[in-house]
Amino acid sequence: MQTSFIKNYTINDIVDLLGDKPQKNSDLHIHLSKNNFDETPFIAPFRAGNYTFLLIVKGRFKVQLNLITQTLHASEMIIIKPQTVVQIIETSTDLEIIGVSFTLDFIFKILLNKNEFDGIDFLTANSYPKLKLDAEEQETSVLLSKLLAQNNDAETSDMPFRDEIIMHSFGLLLYHYGAIFKREHPNLDAHLSRQQEITLRFFKKLNNHFKNERSVKFYADSMFLTPGHLSKVLKEVSGKTAGQLIDDAVIMEAKLLLSNPLLSISQIANDLKFSDPSFFGKFFKKKTGLSPSKFKNRSK
């Protein structure tokens, strides 16, 4: 196999090839198929540019992942990781699948306010074990995937807390599969690259200190790295610099606090350690395009 001629497919490429419509989040796509695989659009091998949870609802799916052949049947799922060379070998005529594709950056959005990262180490396993789900586990997987698809549909009318529903639904699906992997493969050989390890360490520290520390130098010093190197690693892994991720954490917390009708803008500015409400207001508007008061009114 000549890997130099293998195309790298991003989520947008996969959306185009499948004939799906683009969804709300460009770094998340849910494909629900039903008896529409008379001919696969993926004729040649390709390199995955993102993660995919692939669940076989019905039928049979034969695929090579980095030259390792896997045959999946109904109620089985497998994770396709970035940089995996994928070649579809055979599909049954009655095939029904659910594919949830997402980027590493989307995972970090979910985990930004989480204290534990152990639940996602199954995503970094060197091997490609498949899971056999029981009826209840498959039902849960399908339900969560459809809930994600419904809320990530770009044509769905906006509703309050839509982004939060997407984030929490994805988080539930992530930990749902993670729990099954831990149960079925307790000794799974999970491996984090040096860059991923640095990124996860940064997010742990960010979760603990973002209210009081918004200096890149603080986080770099605590990790014995230079600010430039830390930002370079974070940019490579998550697509954002340390400064952008720190601002994201503050804005996410600010939005949550502004959604609480019992808290004033002054109280929120104080809780987030801004020198005064005016400075907080300028920061929030610069990052979101809305003043805190306008955002607060829209959240009612």
Automatic annotation (TrEMBL):
Coiled coil: none annotated. Residues 200-298 form the HTH araC/xylS-type domain. It holds the Pfam family HTH_18. GO terms for molecular function: DNA-binding transcription factor activity; sequence-specific DNA binding. Signal peptide: none annotated. The keyword Transcription regulation applies. It comes from the Bacteria. This is HTH araC/xylS-type domain-containing protein. It comes from Polaribacter atrinae.
